[in-house]
Amino acid sequence: MAFFLETLIGGLMAGMLYSLVALGFVLIYKASGVFNFAQGAMVLFAALAMARFAEWIPKWTGIDSMLLANLLAFVIAGIFMFAVAWVIERLVLRHLVNQEGATLLMATLGITYFLEGLGQTIFGSDIYKIDIGMPKDPIFMLDSVFPGGVLVNKEDVYAAAIAAALVVLLSVFFQKTTTGRALRAVADDHQAAQSIGIPLNRIWVIVWCVAGVVALVAGMIWGSKLGVQFSLTTVALRALPVVILGGLTSVPGAIIGGLIIGVGEKLSEVYLGPYVGGGIEIWFAYVLALTFLLFRPQGLFGEKIIDRV
Amino acid sequence: MSTKKIGDVILDVKNISLRFGGVKALTDISFNVKEHEIRSIIGPNGAGKSSMLNCINGVYTPSEGSITFRGQTFAHMNSRQVAEMGIGRTFQNLALFKGMSVIDNIMTGRNLKIRSNLFMQALRIGPAQREEEKHREFVEHIIDFLEIQAFRKTPVGQLPYGLQKRVDLGRALAMEPQVLLLDEPMAGMNVEEKQDMCRFILDVNDEFGTTIVLIEHDMGVVMDISDRVVVLDYGKKIGDGAPEEVRDNEDVIRAYLGTSH
Amino acid sequence: MLYRENGQFKTSYRADQQIFPITQDRVGIALLLAFAFIAVPLLASNYFYTAVLIPLVIMSLAALGVNILVGYCGQISLGSGAFMAVGAYGAFNFFVRFPGLPLIPALILGGLCATFFGILFGLPSLRVKGLYLAVATLAAQFFSDWMFLRIKWFTNNSDSGSVSVNHLQVLGMPIESPMAKYLFCLFLLVVIALLAKNLVRGAIGREWMAIRDMDVAASVIGIRPMYAKLSAFAVSSFIIGMAGALWAFVHLGSWEPAAFSVDISFKLLFMVIIGGMGSIMGSFFGAAFIVLLPIVLNQFLPALLGLFGIEISTAGVSHAELMIFGGLIVWFLIVEPHGLAKLWSMGKQKMRLWPFPH
Amino acid sequence: QAKEQFFPLLSYRTGPYAPNGTPWANGKQDYLKMINARDGGINGVKITFEECETGYATDRGVECYERLKTRPGVTLFDPQATGITFALTEKAPVDKIPLMTLGYGLSVAADGMAFKWNFPYMGSYWTGADILIQHIGKNAGGLDKLKGKKIALVYHDSPFGKEPIPLLQERAKMHGFELQMLPVTAPGVEQKATWLQVRQSRPDYVMLWGWGVMNSTALKEAQATGFPRDKLYGVWWAGAEPDVRDVGEGAKGYQALALNGYGTQSKVIQDIMKHVHDKGQGTGAKDEVGSVLYTRGVIIQMLGVEAVRRAQERFGKGKVMTGEQVRWGMENLNLDQKKLDAMGFTGLMRPLSTSCADHMGSTWARVQTWDGKKWNITSDWYQSDEQILKPLIKAGSDKYLADKKLTRRDAADCQS
Amino acid sequence: MEQQNIVLNVNGIEVIYNHVILVLKGVSLQVPEGGIVAILGGNGAGKTTTLRAISNLLAGERGAVTKGSIELRGERIENLSPADLVKRGVVQVMEGRHCFAHLTIEENLMTGSYTRTSKGEIAANLEKVYNYFPRLKTRRTSQAAYTSGGEQQMCAIGRAIMTNPSMVLLDEPSMGLAPQIVEEVFNIVKDLNTKEKVTFLLAEQNTNMALKYADYGYIMESGRVVMDGAASDLASNEDVKEFYLGVGGGERKSFKDVKSYKRRKRWLA
Ligand SMILES: Nc1ncnc2c1ncn2[C@@H]1O[C@H](COP(=O)(O)OP(=O)(O)OP(=O)(O)O)[C@@H](O)[C@H]1O
Ligand SMILES: Nc1ncnc2c1ncn2[C@@H]1O[C@H](COP(=O)(O)OP(=O)(O)OP(=O)(O)O)[C@@H](O)[C@H]1O
Ligand SMILES: [Mg+2]
Ligand SMILES: [Mg+2]
């Protein structure tokens, strides 16, 4: 029982972390109809910037407060992400207004390569460390009820809290503000949105900036857990089933989807894995998402896919 | 009405109702269509005209009622079965295959009649090749008929609206349907083009004896070419009869025609 | 006005239904084939065969398969790597379990395994569409990665999961030398491309495209979405499976599941989109772009930068290569969102008007 | 045609394995630069080299191989990746170019009678696994104490990670311990489920068989689930600085095999400093010189160079050797302690001598422990157990030969 | 057209799609302040393209203006973004409706007020639209994709009105609308024109209606303006009557009696 709880909690936590990456996908898709494969690369890029600046700032300026250094690094990395957003709009999106989904998807793949190359050129390709003071050691709860207690990872709890806060913030942004509505309009029809005066260029810069910041937060947390290194981009592949399970267009969906996938894959690996030789969690996550899709083709909270004649 | 003889009821719609959540798109609609006739459906926007066609077509499933086509009664069929039975259709919001050329679009209308299987098609041996040519010939007739020879190989997405409408008609004709459902085929055309389109419809009706169900907002056209007219309003039938009758119907004038007609 | 169809009148529909109705195109293709089959073997070095031509030909074949599914039928798939893997391991199993089975039947059987697998993972497409389907097909990818690592039977009980084949021969002729391998793959590519072209310009191809462009309308004119989609999955995964088997047997010789990782799935999708969706020719252009560009960059970048007096570290070259690759993808998309094939046909259209600008 | 011995260098400096691939590649390059600078080449034959980025991907590796193998004076290939090794194993005999896979690759390839062109110098996954069990047994107070114990293997789910399994199963049978298998999907950034399972089944020891980012992640998860780090043992591919550096204190007590020595004391490293880095010609950063993987790169390249030197002894001093001649050199290498000392490799490796039947040449390794800041060698040399390895290798190579319809080399072939 | 205040001056523009398809071959037209100008012409004449060129929506169709100039109140506008144009009061209602499928009718309308900031003004505009199109009010909470064709057309027009425009480019507003609504739409156009001084440039196939409400008309044929003049003059022109109003020879012919397809007479080849 205790072990089941542990697995469950572990799954929930892992799920929250996936959500954080999934959120980036959802944001951009919702706001511009672009399925942004570069999200993983953005996470890496942001994390690299953060890690390296946190390392360089004390060296350059002599600041020795870790908090201050981290804060500065965060801000600078944020500025980097803004710059990236701006450049992407200028050089890529602007020229691809009104193109089909596949074309835009492809463009984001191009951006992925570019960012991976650029990130490693500027910041290096070693393993770097982000130390934002997250506690690394486990805590044990409920030891009165279960022998040995239930292991909970403190770092994960903090991370999950940050993710949750971000999601609430973004949900409000989308539902309640004019910009939120404009973003959804753009996703439906670029040209019509333009025709009534929604400035696509500015909208895109805004969304990619927000997605950049989300990537930065995700990169910071994942980076602090795993170390910052190229493989961070592969967390994007982990987040994809979350995105489609929750629905490409739903912010809360990203969270719920994350939790379901997180729990599902951990339970499957732990309880099912040993019978079939293990290593099943990644495909299990995808199959799980696929199963949900069979019942709701637009994901749990996604907007209905409309086809009418 | 010259030489045309109107036959028996070919399509009979009985007590159809259709609901979308709260919206009642159709309430208890009944009407029939006779062989060789041109039957128009008119009504204000959102009256449920297109929905009616969608029900006949098997795109929507009516919540109540039944449809009888040539003696066969069904509440719901899938679109394929309806197509096989010989009901063709054009669409209000252009549902052409944008990436394909005009010829290919019309050729898809022949697909129901293709007999050769995948392997024969891959090899293009004898029968498959002959079949392809035979259908191509048929399609060329349609192209000639609709006077779109010049655009044969243009992707339809690049054609102006009016021509796309014509291709849409061509695709439906290629099915050699017994009944042809036309959803606003003349929207977005000027008078001259409408005249052409009317000519096509009348010719189809005359030459192939195809029964036609027509949705159209241009009263001139409707009054001139249809044999009988159904009027829908807010999902209800408010009139049914010969054009002249309908034109003078008080309800119809109030709900649809407005005072100027 | 060298290139135009004016003055070439077709007297029968058959003539007009040829694959290449324009004489210049026919001549061009004939020359190209002659070049590929005759001139290349006279000119190419072994390196060129093994590192460039063979991968190019096999990847063209795979891209062709993907294009049928993605470009013609509109079902975006990221599971192509899995179909290749199934083709490769399927063919391998037939090859080692039935000693004496000739190569070509083994390849075809491998393709059929992939067909089966493709249909299985194509079933969700009846309900799930677009990007949702794209992501869902990754399930096939990760499942196959796992399956070939974990189920020992598929790898003939190899401890590491890595398997190999050799002594390939067709009709008694050994397929060992790079030239033989190249010609063999090229031959298969030409045959399959021809069959595929026949399919896509025939009735079934029209069904696929109709489903892609507007599925509701397609069903109203009597096209069964299920048949169209599943047949596209079947044909496409058959071709991809064959390509996978060739990749494993002919190109790698010895392979492990990672040879068909998700990377390959992505690459195949790039090829199709860059090359041009819904174009057989586009598959070749796309494959050429994705296969050749990294090699070219890798070899010429240092020299090129050297010209400008920039000394660049080895890691720098690799990173610059990534950046240039990504940049070029974006650039091509901006120039022509519908791919290289469209660029090509627009070029032809301009030629038709030549020497007038419009 | 200038007299140049060409060393193709396959490497990866991008992608998930870059942090480990880079120092390794740098060590290889620097040694060659040093030989040119210090000795003017091998008996006057200048060394040239070219690097080719594989990104750890098999198809790119094959392309690199095909491109570089045709260079005049090509010596040997070190693929730096298990997958690429598999693919090249098929090609090398045809092209007559030897493959050196120091500490990795095909374990059965130690049998030179079956694998004429493969050289898993200094050890394979099987020797590594064997030594690791010996060490665990020793820590437990004798191999017999392993009876009834549970050892978990957390491994990279790829041929690399699966290779040691047959040997471990053999050992498990011998000593009566239970072997629990926990695969980790590459590249291994998500291991929560794995470590939850470790926590559940409470194995006495965990063996870590990872590469790249998988290692540091595993250590972090071990910390997060409270698995004692001193019960965690890594293979030599999980025992370099990038694996533990950013875990720092969290990995304290973690032990891993040390295939080679390291540090900046040895003469050869000093020479590299002097002749390469101090002249500003170092390939990478100065502070990584002498690190674990860097030193491994140096050793690999030294063995390559020595093989050429050996071949020259037979086929003509000062000449450029062909792949075939180099192969002979690799097969007849004899580096005793005296030679090693003379070359400045004291403490970095054990003597190594190869023969037609034995392509490994040395089967020794030590154990090192991470103290939170750096690695320290904490054990004496272990040698893997011939008795166990021999039959396994024999069986494996027999199967290989049968599958390929090949025959064993005979004594005559050994002379060529 | 005498030199009253010209708001929009299109001067000999050429438009090419996809770098190869030349569609407009030198189109010039002027729109006076407070006027209603109609562009008439058959399918594919280039009406839509002309409007897109003015509102700068060509880029998304991979088209470009290659020659000529477009001036709005004396300012060259070829390089402005569509959003800038909306800020200057020029808004286009696109052919084929283009409602935001997933947004409700009301949300669709509200997006139209993106450039407006005053809450009161927005509320008033919304009220105005609902007054013009009561049907929209009843459907305000349905997603636009699930409304009928006509409802979508109303929504698109309403959305444009929400931007508070001074000039509206209307592309086939009557397409798919019931006759009564067509009448209404044109009345609304007239209303906005007289009461709020909104200038209109409309592309129409319904020549009858268009000439009834417009002050001035241009007739286009295959990418060229072939005739222009005051609406009343055009309406009485014999050719226009025959080809665009269907009243050749004075009498309106029944659609039924039009004999087989006839070659069109063209003003220019
Ligand atoms: N995106 C495009 N790409 C290529 N050609 C196009 C494109 N859009 C329009 N065209 C071509 O430009 C010409 C003019 O089209 P346009 O849509 O401007 O005509 P229109 O007068 O509005 O016709 P309609 O009354 O049918 O809407 C047509 O021949 C059409 O084929
Ligand atoms: N799939 C659907 N879901 C929800 N509501 C629908 C759906 N299809 C149609 N409706 C509603 O049903 C009503 C009738 O629509 P329909 O399209 O049949 O009208 P119509 O008579 O064709 O109008 P128009 O002349 O404007 O085309 C409309 O109010 C529409 O919003
Ligand atoms: Mg309708
Ligand atoms: Mg138009």
From TrEMBL, chain A:
Membrane-spanning segments: 7-28, 34-54, 66-88, 157-174, 203-222, 242-263, 275-295
InterPro entries, per database record: ABC_transp_permease (IPR001851), BCAA_transport_permease (IPR052157)
Keyword annotations: Amino-acid transport, Cell membrane, Membrane, Transmembrane, Transmembrane helix, Transport
A Gene Ontology biological process term: amino acid transport
Annotated GO MF terms: transmembrane transporter activity
Membrane protein topology class: Multi-pass membrane protein
Pfam families for the chain: BPD_transp_2 (PF02653)
Location of this chain's protein in the cell: Cell membrane
This protein's GO CC annotations: plasma membrane
Record-stated family: Belongs to the binding-protein-dependent transport system permease family. LivHM subfamily.
PANTHER family: ABC TRANSPORTER PERMEASE PROTEIN, BRANCHED-CHAIN AMINO ACID TRANSPORT SYSTEM PERMEASE PROTEIN LIVH
The protein's name in its UniProt record: Amino acid/amide ABC transporter membrane protein 1 (HAAT family)
TrEMBL record, chain B:
Lineage: superkingdom: Bacteria
Gene Ontology cellular component terms for the protein in this record: plasma membrane
InterPro entries xrefs: AAA+_ATPase, ABC_AA/LPS_Transport, ABC_transporter-like_ATP-bd, BCA_ABC_TP_C, P-loop_NTPase
One Pfam family hit: BCA_ABC_TP_C
Record's protein name: Amino acid/amide ABC transporter ATP-binding protein 1 (HAAT family)
Keywords for the protein's UniProt record, in alphabetical order: ATP-binding, Cell membrane, Membrane, Nucleotide-binding, Transport
Organism: Simplicispira metamorpha
PANTHER family: ABC TRANSPORTER ATP-BINDING PROTEIN, CONSERVED COMPONENT OF ABC TRANSPORTER FOR NATURAL AMINO ACIDS-RELATED
Nucleus found in the keyword field: no
From TrEMBL, chain C:
Listed GO MF terms: branched-chain amino acid transmembrane transporter activity
InterPro entries given in the database record: ABC_transp_permease (IPR001851), LivM-like (IPR043428)
Subcellular location: Cell membrane
Keyword flag Kinase: no
Keywords: Cell membrane, Membrane, Transmembrane, Transmembrane helix
Signal sequence bounds: none
Bilayer topology: Multi-pass membrane protein
Cellular component, GO, one term: plasma membrane
Transmembrane segments: 27-44, 50-70, 77-96, 102-123, 130-149, 179-200, 230-250, 270-293, 300-317, 323-344
Keyword Membrane: yes
Pfam family, one: BPD_transp_2
CDD domains: TM_PBP1_LivM_like
PANTHER family listed in its UniProt record: ABC TRANSPORTER PERMEASE PROTEIN, HIGH-AFFINITY BRANCHED-CHAIN AMINO ACID TRANSPORT SYSTEM PERMEASE
Protein name as annotated: Amino acid/amide ABC transporter membrane protein 2 (HAAT family)
Organism: Simplicispira metamorpha
TrEMBL record, chain E:
Keyword tags: Amino-acid transport, ATP-binding, Cell membrane, Membrane, Nucleotide-binding, Transport
The keyword Membrane is assigned to this record: yes
Residues covered by the ABC transporter domain: 8-247
UniProt cross-references to InterPro entries, sorted A to Z: AAA+_ATPase, ABC_transporter-like_ATP-bd, BCAA_Transport_ATP-bd_LivF, P-loop_NTPase
GO molecular function: ATP binding; ATP hydrolysis activity; branched-chain amino acid transmembrane transporter activity
Recorded superkingdom: Bacteria
Keyword Cell membrane: yes
Any one biological process term the GO annotation gives: L-amino acid transport
Alphabetized Pfam families for the sequence: ABC_tran (PF00005)
Family: Belongs to the ABC transporter superfamily.
Name the UniProt record assigns to this protein: Amino acid/amide ABC transporter ATP-binding protein 2 (HAAT family)
Species name: Simplicispira metamorpha
